[in-house]
Design goal:
The radius of gyration is 37 Å and the shape is elongated. About 15% of the residues are buried. α19 packs across α20. Helices cover about 50% and strands about 0% of the residues. β1 and β2 form a beta hairpin. The protein has 23 helices and 2 strands. By secondary structure, the chain is mainly alpha-helical.
Length: about 425
């Protein structure tokens, strides 16, 4: 009888202790999930650090003041670090399997966009240095994008992106070109305004690469990207000969960046700008129209540029006269059309008006002569052959006249010298 009483008492004690253990464990978990002071007890230590996979030292310090003022300040640490239930992670523990906070739990739409973007794809390929949420938004100090102190505020975006894209080693490893994008952008007309930043052209979460057809910087999408700020110019460009070819996927057709540049776009009045008056006909247009391959591909004459240089306009232009007609003066800028198009500035019915822009009162006969005439005696059009022969005869006459005068003066000087000696 006594043994039965003892057994009953033992079970009573065990049944009383077990719930107590559950209660204590639950209370501890609740404390960790609600009380940030338990986390900050360690993480307010400014000397708390760890090393990443590359051996780089990373601070684990968390400013309580910054966290409380951040957009997530009202939430607890465990709302993000869901696998951290106690301080076992300080020794490695479960934290080793919880390398990143899953922002997509709350920001599902942004996460879906991010997974389509270049940064996410680079991470999935195993690239170590590819931007994740906290690289751009911050960690415990995240602020709304409209806050001037936010890492994603329009005035701070370039600084945020430049943490990687102005790193020479990073640019070299990812084959992003010889120029440093961040440095180029700072000196550009866009960088100086403060109104345009990296995300204006590249996008944010879903930004893509140059070869991604869905990317905002894919060559056939560039006119629409630039058009978000320059709508009227884009409307002109998409109906131009260049815009039509670009839309068809012709990789050698110019887009906005071909003529204006990419990150280092400069104002038209800047002497270093590709669209400056002094550079349009010397470097910008000739990069395509003097190229032998492009001339053959589109059955264009490869002598167009040289014939311009040999003309009165070209000679005056190369001499430094910026008021002389250049390519854009006659062909237009963004709205360039083939000469067969009735709306083209160089259509036969519009030449009088086009020439009249510089030559007021120009008659219908003023523009009837051939443009881009090439002096040649090798064949071709009769007009070119006539010009070629006139050029040769003119050169012969110059040599004969100047040479004859020089010979006459030399012989006259020689005769007088001899006479003085006698």
């Amino acid at each position: 009888m006594r043994r039965r009483d003892r057994g009953s008492r033992t079970w009573v004690v065990l049944l009383g202790i077990i719930p107590l253990f559950f209660f204590v464990a639950l209370k501890t978990e609740v404390a960790w999930s609600k009380d940030n002071s338990m986390c900050l007890g360690c993480h307010q230590d400014e000397s708390l650090k760890k090393q990443d996979a590359r051996g780089k030292s990373i601070s684990l310090f968390v400013s309580e003041a910054e966290f409380k003022n951040a957009v997530h300040g009202k939430l607890s640490c465990s709302d993000y670090h869901t696998r951290v239930k106690d301080d076992a992670h300080a020794e490695g523990g479960k934290k080793a399997a919880d390398k990143r906070v899953d922002c997509g739990v709350c920001h599902e739409k942004a996460e879906m966009e991010y997974r389509k973007g270049l940064h996410s794809k680079m991470i999935m390929k195993g690239t170590e240095r590819a931007a994740y949420c906290y690289d751009c938004h911050g960690k415990h100090n995240i602020l709304p994008s409209k806050n001037p102190k936010s890492m994603t505020h329009v005035s701070k975006i370039d600084k945020t992106c430049n943490r990687c894209h102005s790193d020479i080693e990073f640019v070299r490893q990812h084959a992003l070109g010889a120029a440093i994008p961040g440095e180029e952008f700072k000196k550009s007309v866009h960088g100086k305004t403060g109104e345009v930043t990296c995300t204006s052209c590249h996008g944010s979460h879903s930004l893509g690469s140059l070869i991604d057809p869905k990317s905002s910087i894919f060559r056939s999408n560039i006119p629409q990207t630039c058009g978000s700020c320059h709508p009227e110019i884009t409307e002109q460009f998409i109906v131009s000969i260049h815009g039509v070819l670009a839309a068809r996927g012709r990789t050698d057709s110019p887009t906005c960046t071909t003529c204006h540049g990419i990150h280092g776009i400069k104002a038209k009045v800047d002497p270093d700008s590709p669209v400056n008056e002094r550079r349009i006909a010397l470097t910008t247009c000739p990069q395509c129209h003097a190229a032998e391959r492009i001339s053959k591909e589109y059955k264009l004459t490869s002598t167009t540029v040289q014939s311009y240089y040999d003309s009165f306009h070209g000679l005056s232009y190369r001499g430094g006269d910026t008021y002389s007609a250049n390519c854009a003066s006659c062909h237009g800028v963004h709205d360039i059309l083939p000469s067969s198009d009735p709306k083209s500035m160089i259509h036969k019915d519009n030449l009088q008006k086009t020439c009249g822009n510089c030559h007021p009162g120009a008659s219908a006969n003023f523009a009837k002569g051939k443009m881009h005439a090439v002096a040649s005696i090798a064949g071709g059009e009769i007009g070119d052959m006539i010009v070629g022969w006139v050029k040769i005869i003119y050169i012969i006459l110059i040599v004969m006249v100047i040479g004859g005068l020089t010979f006459f003066n030399f012989t006259d000087w020689l005769r007088k010298t001899i006479d003085r000696r006698h």
